[in-house]
Structures are given as structure tokens and as C-alpha cells.
Design a protein that fits this description.
With 71 residues, the chain is mainly α. The chain has three helices and no strands. Helix 1 runs antiparallel to helix 2 and helix 2 crosses helix 3. It is flat and about 45 Å long.
Length: 71
């Protein structure tokens, strides 16, 4: 959801050629990142423990990892 909001705001910034909207985009990106790091991830770690650690090891935080399947 965070990435969707940032993508919409980035589109508006480009559509309207707005430096203020670009500043808002940067501000929100930092705010979302800090919320995830400081609030959501510690809470998830407390709730799920080892399962959360395994999940974090397998999945990147913001963008998907594209891996080739080895046969």
C-alpha cells in the first residue's frame, strides 16, 4: 500500500510538474520507511518471533527480488 501511494504521488508530481509534490513524495517516502522500521517490524518480530525472522530472510523490504530458478 505504501508503494502504491508513493507511485500515485510520483505520477501527480510528473503530471503537474510540481516541485512541491516531489518534496511531499520524498517526505512521505522517508516517513513510511521510518514507520516500517521503527514500529511495524519490531511489532511483527514480537508477534511472530522465529517465523518473522525467516520471512525477513526470504523477502526484501520494499522491492521484490527476482531470482532465476535453478533446475
Amino acid at each position: 500500500m505504501y508503494l502504491a501511494v508513493l507511485t500515485v504521488i510520483a505520477g501527480w508530481s510528473l503530471l503537474y510538474a510540481s516541485a512541491w509534490m516531489a518534496f511531499y513524495l520524498a517526505f512521505l517516502a522517508v516517513a513510511f520507511h521510518l514507520r516500517v522500521i521503527l514500529h511495524e517490524e519490531p511489532w511483527l518480530h514480537r508477534q511472530f518471533g522465529v517465523e518473522w525472522e525467516e520471512y525477513v530472510g526470504a523477502v526484501s523490504r520494499w522491492l521484490p527480488r527476482f531470482r532465476r530458478k535453478v533446475r
